């Protein structure tokens, strides 16, 4: 164990001066990578006063334990272990706000980002040439050793959508490798979402063009250990963030995801209703009830998997949460119908009444779900 985590052949120098650069590394199941990354930072930043803050989402593989062992040998290493919270954006925000240097960098623990670019990025910020420096995949000089074509295509499409919808000027707002002035970040921090994966896009969109940004190319390496944490549901997560920023944060990312899941639930409800009526020849009342139960169940599963992924219910809590969700949505249905009838009595326009009722139902279900189903620990 000790041999596996020993950072170097000798005792590393202990930092005696305040750090100029804080490197934030969000981790989840990166036990085999953190020591390698630490050694690379130590070599690259030999002439810089630095610290590294690993923000670990309580990794089952004990990543936090390896980081703690490193911290016992070098006080430039710190670990923030989060319990009951998940998500890359939230980890980055907590790590940056817990750091102490005037400049902060975000880098993945998978060893695919090029840490040798950190001194160049720091020089650009320290010389006041920029407020933000981005390691970009879409400018001349970028090289890729570990980005497959499918992932590259999806990333390019998402980047183009984000740039056009949010009028973001930088070429790669989806990058996970960047450095920013701490004071500028703290100004924008209250506007940022702790959910999702695209912290840089959130940061740039929230700044509304007030961040002086410079992009530099880098070499995207191959993942050494572990597996990518991104899955197909990240697409909905990304779309929710774009919509939230497009509305100037009038509604939260979580609410948008909840409403999007509700839209999927409507399709599930109508499909179940059609099957029950046409294939099983069930009476309408029974078919409608079946559609409602199936839709509420699918909504619960999707919300637990996506909208509340950082508070995901498991085991017995999953069953208890499902029952609570049924109750919340049943009351929400009554609120939906009540508002719809009230609006229709005053203005007999069916679609207006229907939209008003649906909106009331979504708001009620969202508010009550946060209180009674996915309660924060």
- Please state the CA-atom Rg, rounded to the nearest Å: 24 Å
Q: What is the strand arrangement across the widest sheet?
A: 3-2-1-4-7-5-8
Q: Return the average pLDDT rounded to an integer.
A: 84
- Specify the number of helices: 13
Spans where pLDDT lies below 50 across 5 or more residues:
1-11
Largest sheet: 7 strands, mixed
**Share of helix, binned:** 40-55%
List the defining traits of the structure above.
377 residues, 7-stranded mixed beta sheet, two-stranded parallel ribbon, 13 helices, elongated, disordered N terminus
Describe the protein in words:
The chain has 377 residues and is of the alpha/beta class. The chain has 13 helices and nine strands. It has helices spanning 2-5, 34-44, 63-73, 88-98, 118-126, 149-166, 182-188, 199-207, 234-246, 253-278, 284-307, 316-346, 350-372, and strands at residues 21-27, 50-56, 77-81, 103-106, 132-136, 143-144, 178-181, 213-217, 219-220. It has a seven-stranded mixed sheet with strand order 3-2-1-4-7-5-8, sandwiched between helices. Strand 2 (50-56), helix 3 and strand 3 (77-81) form a beta-alpha-beta unit.
């Amino acid at each position: 164990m000790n041999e596996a985590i020993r950072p170097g052949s000798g005792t590393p120098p202990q930092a005696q001066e305040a750090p100029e650069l804080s490197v934030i590394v969000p981790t989840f199941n990166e036990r085999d990578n953190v020591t390698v990354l630490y050694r690379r930072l130590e070599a690259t930043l030999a002439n810089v006063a630095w610290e590294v803050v690993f923000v670990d989402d309580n990794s089952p593989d004990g990543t936090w334990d390896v980081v703690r062992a490193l911290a016992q040998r070098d006080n430039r290493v710190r670990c923030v272990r989060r319990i009951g919270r998940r998500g890359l954006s939230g980890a980055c925000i907590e790590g940056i706000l817990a750091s102490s240097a005037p400049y902060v960098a975000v880098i993945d623990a998978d060893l695919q980002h090029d840490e040798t670019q950190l001194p160049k990025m720091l020089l650009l910020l320290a010389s006041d040439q920029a407020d933000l420096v981005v390691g970009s995949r879409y400018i001349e000089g970028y090289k890729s050793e570990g980005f497959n074509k499918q992932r590259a295509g999806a990333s390019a499409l998402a980047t183009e959508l984000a740039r056009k919808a949010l009028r973001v000027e930088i070429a790669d707002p989806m990058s996970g490798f960047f450095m920013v002035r701490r004071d500028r970040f703290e100004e924008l921090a209250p506007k940022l979402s702790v959910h999702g994966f695209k912290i840089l896009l959130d940061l740039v969109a929230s700044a509304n063009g007030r961040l002086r940004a410079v992009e530099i190319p880098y070499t995207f390496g191959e993942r050494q250990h572990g597996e990518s944490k991104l899955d197909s549901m990240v697409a909905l997560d990304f779309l929710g963030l774009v919509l939230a920023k497009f509305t100037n944060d009038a509604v939260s990312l979580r609410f948008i995801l909840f409403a999007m899941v509700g839209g999927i639930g409507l399709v599930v409800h109508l499909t179940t209703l059609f099957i029950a009526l046409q294939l099983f020849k069930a009476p309408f009342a029974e078919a409608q009830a079946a559609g409602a139960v199936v839709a509420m169940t699918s909504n619960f599963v999707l919300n637990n998997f996506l909208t509340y992924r950082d508070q995901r219910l498991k085991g017995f809590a999953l069953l208890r949460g499902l029952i609570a969700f049924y109750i919340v949505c049943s009351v929400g249905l009554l609120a939906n119908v009540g508002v719809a009838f009230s609006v229709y009595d005053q203005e007999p326009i069916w679609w207006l009444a229907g939209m008003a009722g649906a909106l009331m139902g979504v708001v009620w279900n969202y508010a009550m779900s946060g209180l009674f189903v996915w309660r924060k620990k």
